[in-house]
Amino acid sequence: MASFSSLLLLLLHVLMAFKTGDGGEMTSMEDDELSGLFEVMGSLLDDPTWAQVHPQPCTDTPWPGIQCELMAQEDGDSQQDYNPTIFHVTKIHIGTDILTPPCKPTATLSPKGLLKLPYLKTLSLFNCFTVSPFSLTSSLFENNSLSTLEHLALVSNPSLHGSIPPSLGHIQSLRILSLSQNKLTGDIPQQICGLVNLQQLDLSYNQITGSVPQEIGGLKSLTIFDLSYNMIGGQLPSSVGQLQSLQKIDLGFNDLTGRVPEELGNLTRLVLFDLSHNSLSGPLPETLFGLKQLEYLVIQDNPINSGMPLFIGSLGRLKVLSFSRCGLMGPMVPSLSSLKNLTALSLDNNSLNGTVPSDLGSLPYLEQLNLSQNQLSGQMLVTEEFISRIGTRFDIRGNNGLCIKNSTSTEVKSPSCISARSRTGGNKSSRVDAEDRPDECGTMNSTLYQSNRCPRNHHRFGFGFDQVILLMVFLLSLVF
Ligand SMILES: *[C@@H]1O[C@H](CO)[C@@H](O)[C@H](O)[C@H]1NC(C)=O
Ligand SMILES: *[C@@H]1O[C@H](CO)[C@@H](O)[C@H](O)[C@H]1NC(C)=O
Ligand SMILES: *[C@@H]1O[C@H](CO)[C@@H](O)[C@H](O)[C@H]1NC(C)=O
Ligand SMILES: *[C@@H]1O[C@H](CO)[C@@H](O)[C@H](O)[C@H]1NC(C)=O
Ligand SMILES: *[C@@H]1O[C@H](CO)[C@@H](O)[C@H](O)[C@H]1NC(C)=O
Ligand SMILES: *[C@@H]1O[C@H](CO)[C@@H](O)[C@H](O)[C@H]1NC(C)=O
Ligand SMILES: *[C@@H]1O[C@H](CO)[C@@H](O)[C@H](O)[C@H]1NC(C)=O
Ligand SMILES: *[C@@H]1O[C@H](CO)[C@@H](O)[C@H](O)[C@H]1NC(C)=O
Ligand SMILES: *[C@@H]1O[C@H](CO)[C@@H](O)[C@H](O)[C@H]1NC(C)=O
């Protein structure tokens, strides 16, 4: 896109050279549009001479934050037929890549100026409103102002406060709306749910309250929906299930309550689903087995308080699964170990009991496994390759006597089953003895390892030197 514009610029320069050679005068922009641009830049930038330094911002005196496009002139004015095309300002961008001159402390958006830029497609201002309070007024998006906008990004503006004006819903051409990392308050206006061309809606990191509007289902083209880090409460409307193009939905760190609607199982293209840090209750609907493309399921820190959902086992593409601190109870879903693409599994701080599904410790890409603070028991089989891959990102502390078998590493944050071999000082034949009684676990007396369910066999096997070393390394690893 950028190179296309520069090509156009180059083309014009060539054209200009020709015209100048002919001695002809060429209008590169309409006066009204140019004065609109000067007004907008004047109200934003900390350089009163900007207009003088850039008298022809589309041609001779460009500025990197402004893009223009050559377009055929609309009214076929016969006097101007020697000049069939003209430049229009299509993009204004200020961001970390374009810093000079910076935005002024009293930066604002000039509604009058913007009204004169009828071809603007992109307006993106990063870290521009930083000192004087600035808010988006309704009039900014009224009377056809900004009506051709496709991409509006006002991001990381610490002094951009106030609410999102409902008139934003007038900009039917909008494809990307990002108002992330500002100080916006108030509700999400229902009017923006009529933006049928909107593909990305990012309102993350604000102080938005209220609830997700029922009308949200109207955003038929939405692929990215990010409301994370706000104070949005209430129930998630079932109409979210109508956003059939959705690939990413992040509602993490809000105050959502109630149950997740079963209609969300219709979001068959969803790749990322983050509901973490809300007050959602369970159980999660089993219709979510329909999320066949899902790679990231992040539910942690919600009072789900139910059994572990069975649908998880059918989400074959899952890479990251987190149900930490969700009050999950009962057994772990056995089919977890069929999720071959899992790289991170966090089930810590729940009330899961029973044994760990066999083969979980041989998942080929798993790099993080936290099962700590549950009531799991028994032996977990792990391969040596698994242990060397996962290292310290493996945690099964705080369970009911859960231990790992065939560990050659002492780096992992997990109690290992003291093998019969080491207990008896390397007698290989007695390994059979341990395997005959698979629930016989290590009995290291660590306050971090509650081995309630394991037989206490201290009288049979004293702690050998290597167990003491193991315990010390284990405790040291906890300190750091
Ligand atoms: C929009 O139009 C109305 C009436 O036509 C007028 O009162 C108002 O001032 C206009 N707003 C802007 C920002 O020009
Ligand atoms: C979405 O799912 C619900 C129940 O899970 C179902 O009744 C409804 O028909 C589905 N809607 C569409 C558009 O598929
Ligand atoms: C696992 O990931 C690979 C690579 O991204 C992909 O080709 C494969 O289909 C995935 N497996 C499943 C069961 O989806
Ligand atoms: C487990 O979660 C509870 C509340 O959900 C919290 O109070 C506690 O500190 C957590 N424990 C650990 C070890 O993280
Ligand atoms: C797991 O806990 C449930 C209660 O939450 C109990 O009914 C069940 O017997 C327990 N199962 C095991 C294997 O301890
Ligand atoms: C540990 O597991 C590996 C791979 O599964 C196996 O080759 C090795 O013999 C086992 N070692 C012990 C001491 O059981
Ligand atoms: C596992 O989870 C517990 C409790 O939530 C946490 O304290 C611990 O740091 C985690 N372990 C690892 C290795 O991330
Ligand atoms: C191993 O134990 C068996 C009986 O359990 C015993 O016959 C054998 O001598 C022991 N071997 C060693 C090396 O201690
Ligand atoms: C474990 O150690 C604590 C003190 O560190 C002690 O009170 C307790 O009796 C010990 N338990 C066993 C089973 O050795």
Question: Mind explaining what this structure looks like?
Answer:
With about 475 residues, the chain is an alpha/beta fold. The chain folds into two domains: about 1-170, no CATH class; about 170-480, Ribonuclease Inhibitor (Leucine-rich repeat, LRR (right-handed beta-alpha superhelix), Alpha-Beta Horseshoe). About 15% of the residues lie in helices and about 20% in strands. The protein contains eight helices and 24 strands. It has a 14-stranded mixed sheet with strand order 1-2-3-5-7-9-10-11-13-15-16-18-20-23. Strands 4-6-8 form a three-stranded parallel sheet, with no helix packed on it. Strand 2 (about 85-95), helix 4 (about 110-115) and strand 3 form a beta-alpha-beta unit. The protein is elongated and about 80 Å long. The structure holds 2-acetamido-2-deoxy-beta-D-glucopyranose (9 copies). One 2-acetamido-2-deoxy-beta-D-glucopyranose binds near residues 427, 429 and 430.
Query: Which stretches of 5+ consecutive residues score pLDDT under 50?
Result: 10-25, 419-476
Largest sheet: 14 strands, mixed
Q: Name the helicity range.
A: 10-25%
The assembly state of the depicted protein chains is: single chain
CATH homologous superfamily grouping of the largest domain: Ribonuclease Inhibitor
The level-1 CATH class of the largest domain: Alpha Beta
Total strands: the figure is 24
Count of alpha and pi helical runs:
8
CA radius of gyration: 31 Å
**Morphology:** elongated
Beta-strand content bin? 15-25%
Tally of structural domains? 2
Ligand list? 2-acetamido-2-deoxy-beta-D-glucopyranose
CATH topology of the largest domain: Leucine-rich repeat, LRR (right-handed beta-alpha superhelix)
Termini separation comes to 50 Å
Tell me the structural class.
alpha/beta
Mean pLDDT: 82
Q: From the coordinates shown, what is the CATH architecture of the largest domain?
A: Alpha-Beta Horseshoe
**Biggest β-sheet: strands ordered side by side in the sheet:** 1-2-3-5-7-9-10-11-13-15-16-18-20-23
